[in-house]
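USER: Note each token:
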Amino acid sequence: MTGRVLAIGAAILLGFARPALAEPLPMAEVAPGLFVHQGEHAEATEGNQGDIANVGFVVGERGVAVIDTGGSAEVGRRLREAVEAVTDKPVLYVVNTHMHPDHIFGNAAFPGVPVAAHAELERAVAARFDGYRQRLGEELGAAVAEAVVPVRVELPVETTRELDLGGRRLILTAHRTAHTNNDLTVRDLRTDTLWTGDLLFVERVPAIDGSALGWLRVLEELMAQPAKRAVPGHGPPSVPWPDAAQAQRRYLTAVVEGVRAVQKRMGGMREAVETVAADEKGRWLLFEDYHPRNVTATFAELEWE
């Protein structure tokens, strides 16, 4: 990681109403031509406009690939301004690593740019879009919710797909159900950087919306693949790989093994929520917001194992 943080200048309007936040997203250049903005460890609020996930972009000789776009059109606009402050090359692609609103709602700031994502993402987003937008309106306001648009995936990834930015190739890989049923990773071959999306959480507790067992399997597969660094979906802009995944593997393993132990002694859901992986509490931010849901989801997944 170079540690170079860009202070990026004047904002350029994209034509939709904008809240008080006005400046482009600050970016860290974690490897040559690879820029990451670190989202807050928080829930989406009117104050942060849904800026709670790591987003960024990769610059090639021909153009740019944006990887995740943030939790609102405003965050996406600020990300686009950050791109424009670094280069005058066009944005060729938007890559969405998975379906969750904090990673996709900024797509509205990139109209006409083809979206690459897991082949299941468009269907998964469509099934939840109305609920996602309603919740966004409750958290950030009606005007913010009205600015987001459904995701249309022009470049679906069934297994792998290569994006050529001009002298720079990105390898997109679709994964089996883990954090969600539509997780995608991006490897920048030039810098040997693995962009994990929410297959990797650092500092903030992981959130299970797919399969705890599947996530552990996918994580083991990823950890077996060497890379110089990883960009997590939540956490620092860049972390050492695979060492940074050890804490998440420990947590997910503790949840699975703890739930199995409760079920083996015929305990119930309430006991599991109160006791499973309780010693992990001091190790993760937002633990009380997400850990009970993780245990509940894993209890249901393992109940008929």
